[in-house]
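thought: fold this chain, then report.
action: predict
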Amino acid sequence: MDDVVIIGGSFAGLAAALQLGRARRKVTVLDTGWPRNRFARHSHGFLGHDHKKPGEILATARQQMARYDTVKLVSGRATAVTGGLDAFRIETESGETHDARRVLLSYGLADRMPDIAGFAACWGQSIVPCPYCDGFEVAGKHWGLVYSGPMAQHMVSLYGDWTDRITVFANGHELDAEARADLEARKVALVEGAIGAISHVDGQIETVDLVDGRKVEVDVLFAHPRYAPAANLHVALGLEITETPLGAVLKTDERRETSVKGIYAAGDLANPMASVTLATSAGMMAAVFAQQSMLR
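observation:
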């Protein structure tokens, strides 16, 4: 029996496995190989790995895991988690089962692309969600923002540290008088009307195309599509969730434990603020708390 089975082997999952391996705990990591940030050319703001490809960082982490003979990395998809504290059973798509005293869920979130032609092809390349992740590389250029609700108003004020050329695309939303006055005061252009398509070349945006035929040039487009957990194991387990403006994440306590004893969660799955740094930190802490819960 494993001490911990980790479901999801991206940044949070591998950080947890590393910590548990160093504690000489027996661990199996089940991973599908589809991390959320696989669309990004580079990862930014992660100390020691700034401007590296996400896949390269993860590949190095997996290689380093070979030092720890109690950690096993398995390519596979978990399909069910049953049992309870000290006696969980994890079933996989291949028919294999893994027994564990604790379970750590780190299978992340999946972004739901809007039905706009060209959007998905640009996602992670020239359509991005986070200025902290990608703003430095496009500082001073013409930024666009797809309005998605009140949160967008805050984003406009945030962008001012990177650029003074901003266009907001209402995309069918009705902005109230206060929001419009704020944009005007900040000298931010507002484009009314729904977006019909994104014109691009190999993922680099050229224009935002409105359904009425207008085309607006921007260098980068910020957008916040809705998201959902990348797997549904939490549903059958009955885990509590927290609703955010863009989707649901798992609810955890200060020890990263979910509403079911012995099941922990870390990474984007339990935190709407997507960040490699935050994911690795949460994975490490979840591992520590899981380990401590097994002390005699």
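thought: worth noting. Helices lie at 11-22, 54-64, 119-122, 131-134, 151-159, 177-185, 233-237, 276-293.
final: tokens above.
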